[in-house]
Amino acid sequence: MAIYVDTAIITEAQLASQWGWVGGITTNPTLLAKSNFSPAVTLQELAQIIPGELYYQLTASDFDGMVAEGKAAFELIGQQTVLKIPATIPGFQAVAHLSPEIPCAVTAIYSPSQAVVSAEAGAKYAIAYVNRATRLLGDGFALVRDMANVLKKTNTEILAASIKSPEEAVQTLLAGAHHLTLPLDVLQAIALHELSQQTVDEFAKNGRGIVS
Ligand code: E4P
Predict the structure, then answer these.
(1) Helix (H), strand (E) counts: the chain
(2) What single-letter DSSP state applies at residue 110?
(3) Active-site position among 84, 124, 152, 164
(4) Ligand 1 center to 170 CA (angstroms)
(5) Which of 73, 159, 204, 211 lies 20 to 30 Å from 131 when distance is taken between CA atoms?
(6) Ligand 1 contact via 168 beta carbon (within 6 Å)
(7) What is the pLDDT of residues 33-55, one digit of tens each?
(8) Which ipTM did the prediction report?
(9) What pLDDT score does 211 carry?
(10) Is the minimum distance from the CB of 161 to ligand 1 under 6 angstroms?
(11) At what angle do helices 39-49 and 63-77 cross, to 10 degrees?
């Protein structure tokens, strides 16, 4: 399992990187637009911060444009590249074309059948938007559960995105997601519990350690 930070803000990526357990960075056009730098400069910076996978979402909507943009992203980012490609007819065609050379993640999946097509096209990841699916379809966890079932005998793994709370993150994993991408605040929240600090404070009051 990998946990990614969903951001294109350099300082957020740096903070997540310091924690030592965040495996990579996912971005999308909305997130890249919030950066102070151009998308290309931002991606090059992000690649230096966490040496794991760096996801770039294609903005072209036709097959030729997607292939050209995917290759350009790979030139820019190198071996860390994962191309996020939308679940559309040209998108799946681009995944089939690019996935033998560059890892691809099909994004904006809202049905298990789109996960099946992702696997057939050769995608490494199928991305489910959990909170959006709950808001728009009624049950994001059911979507993840169905995707996990239809992907069982394939090599395509579920990366769950659009997660707004630690509870949603845990329920998503229990539904069968392999990986999570989380915004910084949720990333921090999954590591914390108020009783942990309370317990640590109690021990600290009771005794001394070997260096203090
Ligand atoms: C995934 O690629 C997206 O960055 C993100 O998780 C979507 O979250 P949202 O539904 O909050 O926009």
Answers:
(1) 11, 8
(2) -
(3) 84
(4) 17
(5) 73
(6) no
(7) 999 999 999 999 999 999 999 99
(8) 0.93
(9) 87
(10) yes
(11) 50
Euclidean distance between the first and the last CA atom of the chain, given in angstroms as a whole number: 37
Question: Using CA atoms, how far apart are residues 137 and 117, in angstroms rounded to an integer?
Answer: 20
Closest alpha carbon to 69 in 80, 78, 58: 58
How many other CB atoms sit within 10 Å of the CB of residue 176? Answer: 18
36 DSSP β-pair partners: none
Cβ atoms of 6 and 31 closer than 8 Å:
yes
84 is catalytic: yes
Q: Contact, 108 vs 87, CB < 8 A?
A: yes
State the burial class of residue 24 (Cβ atoms within 10 Å of its Cβ: 0-12, 13-18, 19+): buried
Give pLDDT < 70 ranges for the chain.
Answer: 212
- Does residue 129 sit in helix, strand or coil? strand
Q: Indicate which atom in ligand 1 lies nearest the CA of residue 163.
A: 6
